[in-house]
Amino acid sequence: MSGRRANRGGSAQGRRAAPAPTEKLQKILAxxxxxxxxxxxxxxxxxxxxxxxxxxxxxxxxxxxxAILLDGRPVDAVAPAVGPARVLIYHKAAGEVAPRRDPEGxxxxxxxxxxxxxxxxxxxxxxxxxxxxxxxxxxxxELAHRLMHPSTGLxxxxxxxxxxxxxxxxxxxxxxxxxxxxxxxxxxxIAEGGARGTNHWYHVVVREGRRRLVRRLWESQGFPVSxxxxxxxxxLALPRGLPPGRWxxxxxxxxxxxxxxxxxxxxxxxxxxxxxxDSRKASRPTSKSVSRAASRTPFPTPSGSGAPGRRRRGGAPx
Length: 318
Description:
By secondary structure, the chain is of the alpha+beta class. The protein folds into two domains: 22-79, Roll (Structural Genomics Hypothetical 15.5 Kd Protein In mrcA-pckA Intergenic Region, Chain A); 87-313, Pseudouridine synthase (2-Layer Sandwich). Helices cover 24% and strands 26% of the residues. The chain has eight helices and 19 strands. It has helices at residues 2-14, 25-31, 37-45, 141-148, 168-176, 213-220, 252-262, 272-282, and strands at 23-24, 49-51, 54-55, 61-62, 68-70, 73-74, 87-92, 122-124, 131-138, 156-163, 178-180, 183-185, 189-196, 199-206, 225-233, 236-237, 247-249, 294-298, 311-313. The strands form five sheets. Strands 7, 8, 9, 10, 13, 14, 15, 16 and 17 form a nine-stranded mixed beta sheet that branches. Strands 3-2-5-6 form a four-stranded antiparallel beta sheet, with no helix packed on it. Strands 1-4 form a two-stranded antiparallel ribbon. Strand 15 and strand 16 form a beta hairpin. Helix 2 (25-31) packs across helix 3 and helix 2 packs across helix 4. The protein is elongated and about 65 Å long.
């Protein structure tokens, strides 16, 4: 009996709690709302992150309970930022830049955003100096990562004003794909938006975030872009009545739509193929074929953008 008691006692002492699983360092910091995974990878390479007293290297793994420092300051990575994830819908104005600080002293898109406790605003899909319209900011690094990752395949829709009148062959080439200096690219959809003198408006859809992609596609066909406005990112559109330079919080339904589109939350089990299929269904305009015979059904465009509404085009020969 005493032997059995000893064995039981020994086995109880031998059972130790399993250590907490490790994760990639950039995933821990992204989940805590400090940036996207790609941005944090650059911080690690630059030597800005330390773990347990030593400089981190790309590929290092850690536990949330480890002593993690960012720029010499302790990081509370046990949980994401206080409260639920937030998403801001922002209307970028002319003359604003996307970095947090601009060496030339130009106004940045961050200057009017509300403060965040234990985290920071992460920009989703930057816009260049001359591009206006919809920008998203979130405190959820994982959400930001998925929204920007090419595998998610989310639509970006733009209203674009070009100089000139492209014919059906030009529009068809832009839908089929053209070679740029960094690889082939194309528009997923094109819809006519009307003409004013020598200027023509179109709404176009892309599923990539490559630098100046919309401008370069049009310029490859000899049509310079004089105005560019992003009017939709995935399931969220630029709200009517939101003035340039202003923001508003996303609604619970809008936040849920973003989570569903990226496979997070309750819909996290959604496969990549299903997410792409849902994204294609939501894509507007819906027709990839373009002809000169267009129906004249107008689509609303947010006020203050300066762009006319879309006119659906379709029925071109295949």
